[in-house]
Design goal:
A hairpin with a 3-residue loop joins strand 8 and strand 9. The longest helix has 77 residues. The protein is elongated, with a radius of gyration of 35 Å. 21% of the residues are buried. The N terminus and C terminus are likely disordered. The protein has 370 residues and is of the alpha+beta class.
């Protein structure tokens, strides 16, 4: 009796081994699908071709199996695909409408197997893949559209920023050439009055006070015009402009500021130069307003294939919940500027130990001004 039971157990073992092999192949297929879906930066066409290539190895007779996907008129298939009568197919729906179908064909009739030509699990697998394909296409297109919308918004913001810089130049020009000249003419007239009324002490004191007031106004006017249109940036380049900005920052706020700029010549893209200048300007403004720092540092230069800007202070340290909050519009503006140049922004703060900002941009940059 023992000899009669062994063949049954042998057949059961073979069946179990067969089922295990088939489930393993199907799981690999599903895993491969998830891996393709989660791969960043892949185009939809490349993803679809990769998914089609996953199907034949998952079927019972992989050497005979070929696969094809028809989606909205486009075709993706494995090498040597030929449609035969020995096939399985499932429709693919995108946003509730039929967009195509996916199918697996055998090139010829396979040899008799323990479970027939096609397995029930293969039918379920093909159905699952068709459903996931539809959802994946929906998500991919939505993500692509959102990314395109963000790019359009960033381009719009860059246009607004360029318009602001042009307006700043215009206002600075008018302040310097018109209001500045008017104040200088007024100062000369006051000087003439002083010469004419040397013997009248009261008038002399008033004229002296007017002269001092005009001098202060001229200095403030020069500072405002310089902030609107950094002359050093146009005449001597970014390193000189950043150094001057830091020196002015020290004098006005009493915060010692160390500057280190290297590897930047006059050939640096003009638009990128003004972007970096405005970023440094905004970060120094934040240090003066919020940090309570006594020391700060600016480091700017190329590191490998990146242009790196580091700005640090020894102030109170920004808290995580303060990053990009409603009140930190300056940081939001910096982030958009950086992303507009396809860079990265890191901001780290430690309580009582200050804040460190690191910006990385592609280097070298050779964008033409638009």
């Amino acid at each position: 009796m023992t000899g009669r039971r062994q063949p049954k157990r042998g057949r059961a073992g073979e069946r179990t081994a067969f089922e295990l092999r088939e489930r393993t192949k199907e799981l690999r297929c599903v895993y491969g699908l998830s891996k393709i879906r989660d791969t960043p930066g892949s185009s939809l066409e490349r993803m679809l071709q990769g998914i089609v290539g996953l199907l034949p190895p998952a079927w019972q007779y992989p050497d005979l199996a070929r696969a094809r996907l028809i989606l909205e008129g486009a075709e993706y298939h494995t090498r040597g695909f030929r449609r035969t009568r020995i096939r399985q197919a499932e429709r693919v729906f995108v946003h509730g409408r039929k967009a195509g179908f996916i199918e697996v064909c055998y090139r010829r009739t396979p040899p008799p197997g323990p479970a027939g030509v096609f397995l029930k699990s293969e039918r379920r697998l093909l159905r699952v893949i068709a459903e996931r394909l539809g959802k994946m296409i929906e998500h991919k297109r939505a993500a692509d559209e959102m990314r395109a919308s963000h790019e359009r918004l960033r381009e719009l913001l860059r246009g607004v920023e360029r318009a602001r810089e042009d307006e700043r130049r215009r206002i600075a020009h008018e302040l310097h050439d018109e209001l500045g000249h008017a104040l200088m003419a007024l100062k000369m007239d006051v000087g003439c009055l002083k010469d004419e009324y040397l013997k009248k002490a009261g008038l002399m004191e008033r004229a002296q006070s007017m002269t001092q007031f005009i001098d202060v106004t001229l200095r403030n006017l020069k500072r405002v015009a310089s902030e609107l249109k950094p002359v050093l940036l146009d005449d001597f380049g970014l390193p000189a402009a950043v150094s001057s900005l830091a020196k002015d920052f020290e004098g006005r706020h009493g915060v010692r500021c160390r500057v280190k700029v290297w590897g930047l010549g006059r050939e640096l893209d003009a638009e990128l130069s003004i972007v970096l200048y405005r970023i440094v300007q905004e970060l120094l403004t934040n240090i003066a307003r919020h940090s309570g720092a006594r020391n700060a540092s600016i480091e700017l230069g190329p590191v490998g294939a990146r242009l790196v800007l580091n700005v640090k202070d020894d102030g109170r340290g920004i808290r995580q919940e303060e990053l990009f909050a409603g009140k930190t519009l300056g940081l939001l503006g910096i982030r958009e500027r950086v992303h507009g140049w396809k860079g990265t922004l890191q901001i780290k703060g430690a309580p009582g130990r200050g804040t460190a900002v690191r910006i990385r941009l592609p280097w070298p940059q050779r964008r033409a001004r638009r």
